[in-house]
Amino acid sequence: MGNWRERLWQERVEPRIFLLAQLRIATDGLALGTAGLNLVVGALGGGFVLASSFVVGRIPAAMDAGVGSPQWRSLVTAFLVASGVLLAQQILTPLSAALGQLVKHRVDGLFYDRLLEASLRSTSVAPQEDDESLANLRLAAEGLEKGSRTPGDAAAGTLALVIRYSRLGAFVLIIGAVISWWAAAAIGLVTMTLRVGHRDVVRTYTRLVPVMNPLRRESDYFLGLGVGPVAAKETRVFGLTSWIIERYRSSALAAIRPLWRERRRVNVTAFLWRSVFSLIVVCLVVALMLRAGAAGTLTLTELTIGVQATIAAVLLGEFYHESDTGTQFGLIAVRALERFRSQVAASEAVPPTVAGGASAATAAPSFSEIRFSDVTFSYASGGRPVLDGLDLTLRAGECTALVGLNGSGKTTLVKLLARLYEPTRGAILVDGRDIATLPVDVWRRQIGVVFQDFIRYELSLSDNIAFGAIEHRYDPGQLAAITARAGLADIVAGLPSGLDTVLASRYDGGVELSGGQWQRLAIARALLAVDAGARILVLDEPTAALDVRAEAAFFDEFAERTRGRTTLLISHRFSSVRHADRIVVLSGGRVLEDGTHESLLARDGRYAELYRLQASLFTADVEGGEDDAVGSTSPGAEVRR
Ligand SMILES: Nc1ncnc2c1ncn2[C@@H]1O[C@H](COP(=O)(O)OP(=O)(O)OP(=O)(O)O)[C@@H](O)[C@H]1O
Question: Any transmembrane segments, and where (predicted)?
């Protein structure tokens, strides 16, 4: 019983209350006006049944009395009234639909704002990287993109229900007033029984959504692999095409099977008894009316009203295409968004701070050290801590290189430094002050970062760079200087619209850059942030896609440009790392070794082992004559000397 009540509340009452509140916020008086208009449109349906029945009822007398007689004029008057009602209905129905569309767009607009707000405003990226909350975010976003299943459709659909139910109310009142209140109650019951059946079917589909969505995700993924450009190369080279088609087919079938099963069950069991019950009641009511008509208890007009209103009312026990899909599915996105918002709220140890860019930059503190003090961190997905009691001090003005095997936690450390996550235990202290106590935007303005998986924005080249310090306005001359420093000058010169060229070939005049060129662009972005006042430069595998000469040039330039900046360099290329002032080896979530290149080689520990291993690979390559460009940048070259 408790469950039943809870479900009723959760599925039917709560969403509607919520929706009404949204309608008020999003549409001011528009929703109320549309509801009023819909009430009139619905009542006109009842009016037409009455007026047209009067026409039918007056025909025999008019025919007997002939053209021009008072009876004839009475028939003409009834006909004109019926036509007027019909005309009013014809004019007001599209108007109501247009207002419904307006309501839909306003409500959807509100939800788009909320979706972006919820997604972008969290301090941490935990909700975007956690499978469960990400699924909710996706569900909310997908819901907004689906043509007839958006929150706006739920709102417009709710308003459209006013037409249907006011019409039903009018028919029931007419039957009650003209025939009998028992007949009215019986017809009202039949209509609602059929209606509830249709709603149950739709509701069943909604309950299947959580079951079907994960299965659909799989089939969507295979579809994406098959038709998208990302996997085009590998699917052909590895001969995966038939395999993908087969996996798509089987996962799509697995996703749709629960729906077929439920559809059979619901359609057979729910509609069979409802249809039989309705048929019996309607036949009984109509038979009684006909008998009363034959006995003279009902006039022809009353009989016509009764029969017409009965048929019209029962026809309302159907699926409402303009309402039911929207009202049933449109709120899935709303609920998913609410769940995502609570997950964001739960993941936020510190409420997000929204600061103006300029003030954030001016309020930036200077410092002499950043200390990771006993920092422990685990991702929400569980498992052993990625960082486990880490103690590490980054000294201002020094370049610290961070090395370690794959998965040793280097990128995670950067995420904590940028406050994309908060430590599970311990703190990151800047001159003794916990960075968690600083306004997050102020702190982030201190950091210029090239992430390992930096973003390739499908925007102009200048936008791609300017994002490094979006609050500042840079003129094209300054941006051009940055591109030159990042080794992009020749590339920019060759672009059709220079700095304004859009970096995606699917746009008119757009171009596609190579992986290495994109990486230079990400470096340019970070350099801009540094120019704008960031005191910490983080480079997570900044040269992974650069050729060896470009890498060498980058580090020559880099050393010059970052002199006096606090730099954290993550790289698997020991040729890059060895130039750092200090090298830290991370292992098991802690600092394993810490020193200069020379001191770590002398120590002959993990760093020395990895360095020599990489050096021997380069030596083998060079001795095999495969690469004459390794030159002075490779540790192998260093070792050979
Ligand atoms: N969003 C996440 N959710 C759950 N676990 C994660 C997440 N990101 C990383 N991990 C896990 O944390 C561990 C450390 O990952 P991290 O990316 O920090 O390593 P890394 O040292 O930078 O590795 P690489 O050298 O391969 O770049 C890995 O075991 C990884 O699977």
Answer: 39-60, 72-92, 168-190, 271-290
- How many angstroms separate the alpha carbon of residue 412 from the centre of ligand 1? 6
- Domains 353-446+536-598 and 453-534 fall in the same CATH topology: yes
Domain ranges of the chain: 2-347, 353-446+536-598, 453-534
Question: Rounded to whole angstroms, how far apart are CA atoms 272 and 434?
Answer: 68
Contacts within 8 Å (CB) and 24+ apart, 470-479: 470/357, 471/356, 471/357, 471/358, 471/360, 471/361, 471/532, 472/357, 472/361, 472/532, 474/528, 479/528
Tell me the residue type at 537.
Answer: L
**pLDDT tens-digit readout, 391-446:** 999 999 899 999 998 889 999 999 999 999 999 999 999 998 999 888 888 888 88
**Could you tell me which CATH class the domain 353-446+536-598 is placed in?**
alpha beta
pLDDT in tens, 534-563: 889 998 887 776 777 777 777 776 666 667
Q: Can you list the positions of beta strands (E) in 542-589? A: 566-570, 582-587
ipTM: 0.97
CATH 3.40.640.10 fits domain 2-347: no
| Phi then psi dihedrals of residue 347, to 5 deg | -85, -10
128 lines ligand 1 (CB under 6 A): no
- Unique residue bearing structure tokens 């409802």: 274
Q: Whose CA is nearest to atom 28 of ligand 1?
A: 407
- For 453-534, CATH gives 3.40.50.300
